[in-house]
Amino acid sequence: MTENAEDKNRAAEERSQDTKRFVRQVRSATRRKYTPEEKIHIVLQGFRREVTVNELCRREGIKPANFYSWTKEFMEAGKQRLSRDTTRDATR
After folding, report:
1. What pLDDT digit, counting tens, does each position of 60-74 carry?
2. How far apart are CA 38 and CA 65, in angstroms?
3. Contact 54, 64 (CB under 8 A)
4. Is pTM, for the whole model, over 0.85?
């Protein structure tokens, strides 16, 4: 390969890396942070089953994987709370 071709390849690779960095920055800057209250509200809407999970996620701008992760966290927190209440009631 000639030196000129190597320079072109190197320049193209640098532009590609710059583009990838830019896309990562835009995605992280536009990522929405949800408060615990917003997450609970969305999870409860999913429990009501008035719309499909996919429709709910589309409407809220989240991925279904996020919804299911929040649902799992919600259920685990509920289980922990209930087990603490049961333990406390047993010691009364």
Report:
1. 999 999 999 999 999
2. 16
3. yes
4. no
